[in-house]
Specification:
Keywords: 4Fe-4S, Electron transport, Iron, Iron-sulfur, Metal-binding, Repeat, Transport. Pfam families: Fer4_8, LUD_dom, LutB_C. It comes from Nitrospirillum amazonense. GO terms for molecular function: 4 iron, 4 sulfur cluster binding; metal ion binding. By secondary structure, the chain is of the alpha/beta class. It has 23 helices and 10 strands. A 6-stranded parallel sheet has the order 1-10-7-4-2-3, sandwiched between helices. A 4-stranded mixed sheet has the order 8-5-6-9. The termini are far apart. 41% of the residues are buried. The N terminus is likely disordered.
């Protein structure tokens, strides 16, 4: 942990889980899924574009956002210490978790000491990273998601497919069928308002009965000890104020230095995420309910105890590398997903990771290790769309290329002689290395190049599509056909000189 509270771990990859390339065909062959995503992504891209009609304003605002996050990362160890001190002064109990297991144990211990048996949860990607709901359930504590999208996913027994809109892969009819099956007394209806009202009736009762509330954190302000949560449904506010106990969980990278740093980030995040100028609710939590002093009445609402769990889970390792640390700038807006031509065709579940899409392709391998997720940096066209829309200017394509290199030829940290990224070199294939070595040999020797190309022109088309060196290509593409005559032959016929003859061409 960056503040001398512990080290870092690499996360918890699912055991024997299918990789991206193995899961992608199922998504590509699901026309309904592709229609759902295409419709949703087109709408989100249009709404975001409408929020930034002035390129100069967009450029200036994202420069401010990137500067805020870069400054926070530069001072991260110090800011975490300051955040802890300020929150403690405000009456918030701060806990440090090196691993997700440790974070789960901390949350469980707090709940058990409070005698809590039911929990109402706001949306939190860190709690997904911890698999917190399942952990609490194993210990007899029921956790209910209060965000509508997360509630739908929980009813379906699925994981989120998007970090802002968890059930974006489902359409209205699928949700209607699910509600009719899972909510007692509800008949199937295609009316969106009726479906929303049904969920509201269930969740309102849960808010009133919950022994504790759990939430994520969008930003944690070191200067004032303030936890900032933004949302649209009011569920986050209810989760953090109605129950007597509030537990917030967040990654260590969410800290910012000043309260004045929040406005530019709030101007960027909702516009980039959902195309809104601002979210419906901006919650700023600086402590538990205050008691009355010297005969004065205390505050009448809010939790009597607030806890913050700061999770490392591999983030310190990411932070150690100057280039890869840019990953930690992410403000979880999902704009990169909404514009990614790969994500919009296969959806979030294909990645089989907590964080899908472009940001997931650079974050997951660093948290879980390249042995578990080394294929993810390759699930990209490097089209640069993600970098162009990122509100804090994360150079995602550059980091994808860096991780591809780490996967086959790891960089070592001078101090430890360990790979910068966990399991560096895990994706190295000797067959691929030999192919590239052969390619280099051929392309750097003109005579050998002519011999090989003529041999391919003569017999290349006889190589079967399932041959070892062709199989990976032809599983998703047509087998290349070699022409009987080379480009050099055609150029020579038209009178163009060979490269070796260029010195004789008149200037």
């Amino acid at each position: 942990m960056l503040s001398e509270k512990g080290g870092a771990d690499g996360g918890h990859p699912p055991e024997h889980a299918p990789r991206f390339a193995e899961r992608a065909p199922d998504a590509l062959n699901n026309p309904q899924l592709r229609r759902n995503f295409r419709r949703a992504m087109d709408g989100l891209m249009a709404k975001r574009a409408a929020q930034f009609p002035d390129p100069a304003y967009w450029a200036e605002l994202r420069e401010r956002g990137a500067a805020v996050k870069a400054r926070a990362l530069a001072k991260l160890p110090d800011l975490l210490e300051r955040l802890e001190a300020r929150l403690t002064t405000n009456g918030v109990q701060v806990h440090w978790a090196e691993t997700t297991e440790e974070a789960n144990a901390i949350v469980l211990g707090i709940l058990q000491r409070a005698g809590a048996r039911t929990v109402i949860k706001g949306k939190s990607m860190v709690s997904e990273e911890m698999h917190l709901n399942a952990h609490l359930e194993r210990h007899g504590i029921e956790a209910v998601e209060s965000d509508l999208g997360e509630y739908i996913i929980q009813l379906a027994g699925e994981t989120p497919s998007h970090i802002v809109m968890p059930c974006i892969h489902k359409n209205k009819d699928e949700i209607s069928d699910l509600f009719a099956e899972k909510i007692p007394g509800l008949e199937r209806t295609g009316d969106v308002d009726e479906l929303t009202a049904a969920a509201r009736r269930v969740l309102r009762e849960r808010f009133a009965q919950a022994d504790a509330g759990i939430s994520g954190v969008n930003f944690a302000v070191a200067e004032t000890g303030t936890l900032v949560l933004i949302e649209n449904e009011g569920n986050g506010r209810l989760s953090t104020t109605m129950p007597p106990l509030h537990i917030a969980v967040t990654g260590i990278e969410k800290v910012v230095e000043l309260l004045d740093d929040i406005p530019p980030l709030l101007a960027l995040l909702p516009r980039s995420a959902t195309g809104q100028p601002i979210t419906t609710y901006v919650n700023m939590i600086s402590g538990p309910r205050k008691k009355g002093e010297m005969g004065k009445a205390g505050e009448k609402d809010g939790p009597t105890a607030v806890h913050l769990v700061l999770l490392d889970a591999g983030r310190s390792r990411v932070y150690q590398d100057v280039e890869l640390a840019d990953t930690l700038r992410c403000i979880r807006c999902a704009a990169c997903m909404n514009h990614c031509p790969v994500y919009t065709r296969v959806g979030g579940h294909t990645y089989n990771a907590i964080y899908p899409g472009p940001i997931g392709k650079i974050l997951t391998p660093q948290l879980q290790g390249l042995d578990a997720a080394g294929d993810q940096p390759h699930a990209s066209t490097l089209c640069n769309a993600c970098a162009e829309v990122c509100p804090v200017k994360i150079p995602i394509p550059d980091l994808l290329v860096r991780l591809r290199r780490e996967a086959v030829r790891p960089t070592e940290t001078p101090a430890t002689h360990l790979p910068v990224v966990k399991d560096g070199g895990a994706e190295r294939s000797w067959n691929e290395a030999l192919v590239w070595a052969g390619w280099r040999l051929v392309y750097t020797r003109p005579l050998l190049y002519r011999m090989v190309t003529r041999a391919l022109a003569w017999g290349g088309n006889w190589v079967p599509a399932g041959a070892p060196l062709m199989r990976d290509w032809t599983t998703a593409r047509t087998k290349p056909r070699f022409k009987p005559r080379t480009l050099h032959d055609l150029a020579r016929e038209r009178g163009y000189p060979n490269r070796l003859e260029l010195d004789e061409v008149p200037k």
